[in-house]
Design brief:
The protein has one domain. It is mostly helical. A two-stranded antiparallel ribbon has the order 1-2. The chain has a two-stranded antiparallel sheet with strand order 3-4. Helix content is 69%, strand content 7%.
């Protein structure tokens, strides 16, 4: 049975550690390890994996630059790329066999130790808050008090409500897609044990990529608006 809310695995000084939070930590460790290995392996004559990584990064940079415009730089790119990679790896890690298949027993209930990170609304809400608040902070750092004045007139009040709408939209869009995928894979795996779930795993890989891309593109657009004069 799939719970809508995440399940607590243990506590640290009274702070509950849930299975979705554990998966996010695992994602962070794996992603950091991959980046560390690639960085240590960099050569002037790139090997195949380095060449592939460079091609992907260059094309991603050019794509986001075409959306943002001439003021796009490496700092903004790093901010957006972090979102994209973390969401992508979190989504893809969520369909691996270790996620949802390793349990601890709590009475008659089996609680999975790992669960897809963004099948938890709290995790998507945190991500949305980082995106929206980070965007506004960059706007304040760039324009100072002039940026804050955007929200002090009648139209600015509507824009302020728009910022809250962004948070809700980000949160529920990502949560809905990932949770629906988790339910789908669980049902298919229960009906067809062997090869039938494979096409659906491919579908979830694609959905995970699209969701990460949508989040990155929307954050780019919001940053472009926040860092523009008008």
């Amino acid at each position: 049975m799939i719970e809508i809310r995440s399940e607590k695995i243990f506590e640290i000084y009274g702070f509950p550690i849930t299975n979705t939070l554990l998966t996010s930590w695992l994602t962070f460790v794996l992603l950091s390890l991959i980046i560390f290995i690639l960085k240590k392996s960099l050569k002037n004559r790139p090997f195949k994996l380095q060449a592939l990584a460079e091609i992907l990064l260059e094309n991603t940079y050019n794509f986001l630059h075409s959306i943002f415009g001439e003021n796009f730089n490496l700092k903004i790119f790093s901010f957006i790329l972090t979102f994209f990679l973390f969401i992508l790896f979190s989504n893809w890690l969520g369909i691996l066999p270790i996620v949802g298949s390793i349990y601890i027993q709590e009475g008659e209930q089996k609680v999975p130790i790992f669960r897809s990170t963004y099948s938890d609304l709290n995790m998507t809400l945190a991500l949305a808050l980082i995106s929206v608040i980070g965007t506004n902070l960059l706007g304040i750092l760039n324009f100072g008090i002039k940026f804050i004045k955007r929200y002090t007139n009648p139209i600015g009040i509507l824009e302020l409500f728009g910022e809250f709408a962004k948070i809700l939209s980000f949160s529920f869009r990502l949560f809905g897609n990932i949770f629906a995928g988790e339910v789908l894979l669980t049902i298919i795996a229960g009906l067809f044990v062997l090869f039938a779930p494979i096409p659906f795993l491919g579908l979830e890989l694609f959905v995970g990529l699209i969701q990460a891309l949508i989040f990155a593109v929307l954050t780019t657009i919001f940053l472009k608006v926040a860092l523009s004069e008008h």
